[in-house]
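Hi L.,

As promised, Radical SAM domain protein:
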Amino acid sequence: MASHDNEYPVAPPAPLKGRGAVTNMQGRYEKDERERVDDGWTYIGEDGETNDAPSLRTQVFEERAKSILTRNSSPDIPFGVSLNPYRGCEHGCIYCFARPTHSYLGLSPGLDFESQIYAKINAGELLERELDKPSYQPEPIALGVITDAYQPVERNLRITRRVIEILSERGHPFAAITKSSLIERDIDLLAPMAQKGQVMAAITITTLDADIARTLEPRAATPSRRLRTIRALTEAGIPVGVSVAPVIPFVTEPDMERVLEACAEAGATSASYIVLRLPWEVAPLFKDWLAAHFPDRAERVMGRVRDMRGGKDYDSDFSKRMKGEGLWADMLKQRFHNATKRLGLNQRQRGILDMSEFRHVEKVVGRHPRAAVDSAQMKLF
């Protein structure tokens, strides 16, 4: 097993208020090297945050994307098509597996990922063009998988809402996953689609501890607000699941049963979980976060992560990356199974979305040839 000595800094980087990453580490494709320099002026307050550091403002850049639907063939991912209206995510979740995608832009997966957001302003136009092709074969679309489709900039840009309007007009099924209460804004579109079996939603809740959530996912809705969102969607007739993801040993893991109980009480009918994933630059970013916020348990956390990852920080094997392996992974799986069974979660047939109403707007032809055969299963949640 590789040595992990000195992987945590003696003087960890100071957190920035309202941000998840504590550094702006160099992306793996950047040509210029970055070096942190202490000029002696940094003051760390009693709350552990940098009080006199300049605030990091979010910048939003307009992007005219070339395509909008991403197709996936990974055997451990239960959907084949996804749509992401944005690149980067202001929620700032330190564990986000999508952080390394900012490296392709020549930016850092750290603070750049959560402060330099690219908005695909032509998403609606591209989606219309794709869906109205005579050759288009419908299958459920997963909305907001790589970055949250309801992150703060959506409140004004309304790109996600336009996407949903188009899907609604064409009777095209989709599933949305989010940490934001902003999804409630679109209940007027979601509820009628839910009545036809064309939509489902999942709310991600990692912990009920607001203090942990504030550092873990600083600009997402609070845990209590997300529970209210589950209730609001459920009362509107929209099927809702909860994604307990990621499960972080000794940080969010002790809270798993409580999260499931609260979500079931709020109206969720299904649940899933994913063990912490640390691909590429996410690993060092997460370790810096641990050193800054949980120095007392950083070694224990990473030790348990490696116990479930074959001694490594991360294992990309399709059969292991979502749930891990070994004794601790098996115990976690059993805990989840026992809790969901006790709470009546995952008892109904789930993930069924009806494609039979799909139509092209130019010519309404009734049932699509493929959709007429059967409804589609989408066990995203």
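The longest helix spans residues 327-343.

Thanks again for sending the construct details.

K.
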